[in-house]
Structures are given as C-alpha cells and as structure tokens.
Design brief:
Blueprint: E1 3-6, H1 12-18, H2 20-29, E2 34-38, H3 45-51, E3 56-66, H4 74-87, E4 91-97, H5 107-115, E5 121-125, H6 135-147, E6 153-157, H7 168-175, E7 179-184, E8 186-189, E9 194-197, H8 206-212, E10 219-221, H9 230-247
Parallel strand pairs: 1-2, 1-10, 2-3, 3-4, 4-5, 5-6, 6-7, 7-10
Antiparallel strand pairs: 8-9
Helix pairs in contact: 7-8
Length: 248
C-alpha cells in the first residue's frame, strides 16, 4: 500500500511560497511514496509541470467533468489529461461536476476520449457539492458509467461526505467496489463549518471507514501538515497512515 501526499496538505500559502516541486522534495524526504499535484495551486503550469515530470502519482484537476448544465466539459477533460501527460502521472483525478440524468448520453463520448489517452487513468472523487458529493450522486454516476461500458474507479475522500451531511461509513460500504484511491481526511466541526484535521483528531469513525475500503490501493494524506519541522511532521503522519491501514 502506497502512501502519497496531496500537496494541498501543505497549505496554499506554503505551497505558493515554495512551489510544488519544493513540496514534492519534502514529501520524498519524509518517506512518502509519491505525491498528488494540485492544479489549483500551480503558479506557472508551463514551467512547474515539466519540472515535476515523473514525480507525481496523481494530477488533481480543480475542474468538474460536466458543466452545471449537465454537458460534458471536453475542454476541462483535455486540460486535465494534458497536465497528467506532461507530469507522466498515471492518474487524473476529477469530480463529476454537474452530471445529471441528461448527461448519460455523453458517457459514450467520454469513453472515446479516454480511449484516446490510454496512459492516463481517470478516477472520480466525491467533492463537497450536492451534485458530486452525495452517496446518491455517486451511486447514480457509477451505475450509469458501468452501463455505458466504462470502468472508472473512484477516489474516496473520507472527509468530504460531511459537507453534505452524508455518512462516510455508509458511503464506504456502498462504494468500496469502485475505490482505487483513498484520500485520508479527518474532520472536526466548528460553529459555522467543517474543517479538515489529521485522522487521529477526527470526530468521524475513520477506523471503520478504512476497514470498509480496499487496503491495496494508494492512500493519500489530505489534511493540514503544519509546524516548524515539516519533514518530521510529514514523516510522522506517513507512518501513522501506514500503521492505521495495517491495523484496519
């Protein structure tokens, strides 16, 4: 089981100050098996992506696959695939965006576009929105894509379910057959919002969720890594995820 670092874990300020190549070096020093490069945190994609080539396991696109009108966003997909290809990242992570019943007809087009880029595997993440972050939305999508002859896997974000009032354990039990990548994210509730925290500090049943998910897929840290000695803190959290997964 590989432990990755989603580079958003270092925070927008730190990543903006140093760049994702610096963060990637830090993750490697801390013993991580790879990183997830974040599209929304790129300062200059034209120079950063080539510099990171061969270093990333996943490219995370901030764009949804379908528009709010339910139309397949071919341009967004093309941008994600191109970035993953430049990175030589085997996986591209996106949300389904505005996928709806009217979107089903476009699944064959998606299939054709993905067949044209076989070196990049698309994995679908549950985000924090009503259209792409509920169990019902995810189940409807994965049923539709299977019926269309696709075989897409899922990035299961353990924490995002809370933003829509969903039960992460119920989601894990229902969606486990599709899961090919796990975002490890604990949560706590502040008066006005949910926030991401390390698993050890989470109010969610993270151990039970891990037990319900496949153990042999990559697991990424996607919660804040902060402190004076980032290498030591990251190394500690990488070890924690390994031990937690083994214990589950």
């Amino acid at each position: 089981m590989k432990v990755l670092i989603s580079l958003s874990s270092f925070g927008a300020a730190e990543t903006g100050r140093h760049g994702q190549l610096w963060c990637t070096d830090l993750a490697q020093q801390a013993g991580a098996d790879g990183v997830e490069v974040r599209g929304e945190l790129l300062r200059d994609a034209a120079t950063e992506l080539p510099a990171l080539a061969g270093r990333a396991a996943v490219y995370s696109s901030p764009e949804g696959l379908w528009t709010v009108q339910g139309e397949l966003d071919e341009a967004a997909l093309a941008r994600g695939v191109q970035a993953a290809q430049v990175l030589r990242a085997p996986r591209l992570k996106m949300s389904i965006g505005g996928f709806s019943p009217s979107s089903h007809a476009s699944l064959q087009r998606l299939k054709a576009l993905l067949q044209a880029a076989p070196q990049v595997e698309l994995v679908i993440e549950n985000d924090q929105t009503t259209t792409a972050g509920t169990l019902a939305a995810m189940q409807a999508f994965f049923a539709a894509q299977a019926q269309a002859g696709l075989d897409l896997g899922m990035t299961f974000d353990m924490g995002n379910w809370h933003w829509q009032g969903e039960c992460p354990l119920q989601a894990a039990q229902a969606l486990a057959p599709f899961v090919r990548y796990v975002h490890c994210k604990g949560v706590q509730r502040l008066p006005a919002k949910w926030v991401a925290v390390p698993l050890a500090d989470s109010v969610a049943p993270w151990r039970a969720v891990l037990r319900a998910l496949p153990a042999d897929v990559p697991h990424a840290i996607e919660y804040p890594l902060v402190g004076d000695d980032l290498v030591a803190i990251t190394r500690e959290q990488v070890a924690f995820i390994r031990a937690a997964r083994e214990a589950a």
